[in-house]
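User: Hey, quick favor. My workstation is busy. Could you predict this chain's structure for me?
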Amino acid sequence: MNDRSLAVVLIPLLILALFVFPPTSTFAESEEIKHVILIVLDGVRPDTLVAANTPNIDNLVAGGSYTWNAVTVTPSITIAAIPSIFTGATPAVHKVTDWDGEIYAETIIEVFEEAGLSTAIIGQDPILGGYSATYCTGFYYHHEQYEYFTTIAINWFTQHRPFFLTIYDSVPDHIAHEYGEQSDEYREAIEDADFQIGRIMNMLRELGVYERTLIVITTDHGMTGLSHGSTLPGDMRIFSIFKGPRVMKGFEMENVVFTPDLGYAGHSIIDIAPTITVLAGLRTPANSEGRVIYQIFAENNPILASVNRTEAVGAPGDNLHYMLTITNMTNEPDNFRIEITSEKGWAVEFFPYKLMLEPGKSGNVMVHVSIPDLKKSDGDTLLARIVGTEASTELEFNAIGKPLETASEVPLLLPVAAAVFLCGVISALVYYRSRKGGLTSR
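Assistant: No problem, here it is.
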């Protein structure tokens, strides 16, 4: 068969394929924050950290927001404080009392996983192994755990690119218990931790995601002498560093939160979890008692509208459902009115129309869309807006034409398919006869 005869046969079939398999388009939402990395250094006193030689942490401080005067929970011990970092809840709410216990509060891991974002936990204490992370090493002893667990984190992140990665380093706490918080060994343990943090930062730079990554470094409690657990300032005072998109640069947090143990402080340890999730564009953990650390936000936008589902595919007659999450980032309770419109005028239903939210708290708006009767592929964009603010977000999805077996579509497609097929047959016969006639005349 020559090129001419091949074209005569294939063209009608290609036309048929266009009717039967209409092309579809996809939408993607670009996120300002591409990754979140949380590093917890166990038992690091802020004053010792400031005095130590920590060039990598110093770079993060210069490029982000920080405080050396935050406060942990009571009792000031790891088993109480680590779950508070991950839940935003006090020990009375998360109820963790032993290493094999259950956490009775939602974690930031669960918030990310619910939104379809992968997570990884490297070198955590046993109590944190129960988190529903995509990947979790669990905690176990290794004689070179500084380098060992950092290498695991780098390899996993490089290969799998999780949205959220947390790394736990217990060494400074162990060294302080053995040598004391005034010892050279304790300071050197903090400096060794800084070196491993530098490895993580270099990895982010090499992958080209350093500027798109929210980096948070904190500790669970301080130290006094060889121990901790009291309400003494040395035990209760902690630090935090936030560096990344939407965070102010070179900003030392003001002491605006009153605490019974330290007086006014930059924030409480339970404020870390809700601040991370809101910066990432998601809701706060369900049981969080902390407040978002508004003062570190670079933009002056009082409301954050976020979605946990931004793309969907359906056919005419399908009902698509979204859940839009609204977070109050103001310092006062407020009643927010929501508008959701369709770019192409499709029917959109949502409830509630108003949300009364306390500062730092989130509420959900359920969105329902019925795809109209389409004859071909199409798409629409929904714009969700909080009235009276500049906060808005686009919810995009595709709608494809009805499948062949759908009754209302079959009468339309069958005649078209038959006509195209008949056209192909006639063309082939005409070409065959003309070719045969030419051969006979010779």
